[in-house]
Design a protein that fits this description.
Blueprint (H helix, E strand, L loop, with lengths): L2 H17 L3 H14 L4 E2 L13 E3 L4 E6 L8 H19 L7 E6 L8 H14 L2 E5 L1 H8 L4 H8 L14 H14 L14 H7 L4 H11 L3 H8 L3 H25 L3 H12 L8 H16 L13
Parallel strand pairs: 3-4, 4-5
Antiparallel strand pairs: 1-2, 2-3
Helix pairs in contact: 1-12, 2-6, 3-4, 7-13, 9-13, 11-12
């Protein structure tokens, strides 16, 4: 996988990790590990037995994983530390005689914030008391594991196609239709007022803090926005505005979420792209390309992302 696609994949993974909590994070973790290690065994709770404090393990290395994915990683850190110790006690009591524990990994969705003192102290205490290798397993560790996979498996785990730089197939009229229909079916109905002023395309990319790689995707897609005009020429005049209104809401919602999480502009871009791309089992590239072209069309018109002159309205 080339550097640009790796860059896009990293952004998409970060976006999913920042949103994932509870079972969503657990599913993503297990999806990566099952593809990364042929003998990784995910453990599902079973009746009154539960999972005996084991969310998954690798028998060949004696590595056991226990997960914690809070809504806000900065909250309940003392609880997380206590959970790490208590879970290990339960884990060792049931599993150690069945498969000797060589390494205990406490999987914590830190959302790239890093480990914290209470968790580190708890793991050090476990290591000293039981003479077992103990380490946190953070987002950076999951990122490392996923990038050991082939591109097809990475796309399978993330549930999306990783855009290929410089290669954007001809926009398909019917794919654009599917994207438009999807957005109008699923986006929020609240319509924000007003329309942004139109700046130069490249100037707007820089103004919004989008990376050169993401800007390249938008620029390539912008060369094909005529197909969107062709689509709207066969629809009522309100169709174009309806889609504009829905996309503006999607963008506003993602901006609000990003503001709360301190996310970068590239994360917002891929969040919007993911929101407007219809999901399909085959993950057709044509659908994603069409979504990119639709985004470029409304990006150029300043209906999504800000223009340098927006404050002058």
């Amino acid at each position: 996988m080339d550097k640009t696609r790796r860059f896009f994949a990293r952004i998409i993974l970060e976006l999913q990790l920042r949103r994932a909590q509870g079972y969503a994070f657990e599913d993503l973790f297990k999806a990566v590990m099952q593809r990364r290690y042929s003998d990784f065994r995910p453990i599902q709770p079973y009746g009154n037995l539960g999972d005996r404090k084991n969310d998954g393990y690798i028998p060949s290395s004696g590595t056991f994983f226990q997960l914690y994915a809070p809504k806000d990683p900065s909250e309940k850190l003392d609880y997380a530390a206590t959970k790490a110790k208590d879970d290990f006690v339960g884990l060792k009591k049931y599993w150690h005689t069945k498969c000797p524990i060589q390494c205990y990994r406490f999987v914590f969705n830190d959302r790239y914030g890093g480990s914290v003192v209470p968790i580190e102290a708890a793991l050090i205490e476990i290591a000293k008391k039981h003479s077992i290798d103990t380490r946190p397993f953070l987002c950076k560790d999951l990122e490392h594991e996923i990038f050991q996979l082939d591109l097809d498996l990475i796309q399978d785990v993330l549930g999306t196609i990783i855009p290929e730089p410089g290669v954007l197939g001809d926009a398909d009229y019917y794919a654009v239709r599917d994207v438009v229909d999807h957005v109008l079916r699923t986006a929020a109905p609240v319509v924000p007022a007003g329309k942004l002023l139109t700046p130069e395309f490249q100037e707007k990319i820089k103004f919004n803090g989008l990376s050169e790689r993401v800007g390249g995707l938008l620029s390539a897609a912008a060369l094909q926005t005529d197909v969107v005009n062709d689509f709207f020429s066969n629809r009522s005049g309100t169709h174009r505005q309806d889609l504009r209104d829905h996309l503006a809401v999607v963008y506003a919602n993602e901006c609000n979420a990003a503001l709360a999480a301190g996310s970068a502009a590239d994360l917002i871009f891929f969040a919007v792209l993911g929101a407007i791309t219809p999901k399909s089992e085959s993950m057709k590239a044509a659908i994603q390309n069409a979504a990119l072209v639709v985004m470029a069309y409304y990006f150029e018109a300043c209906d999504i992302f800000e223009g340098p002159n927006a404050s002058a309205r």
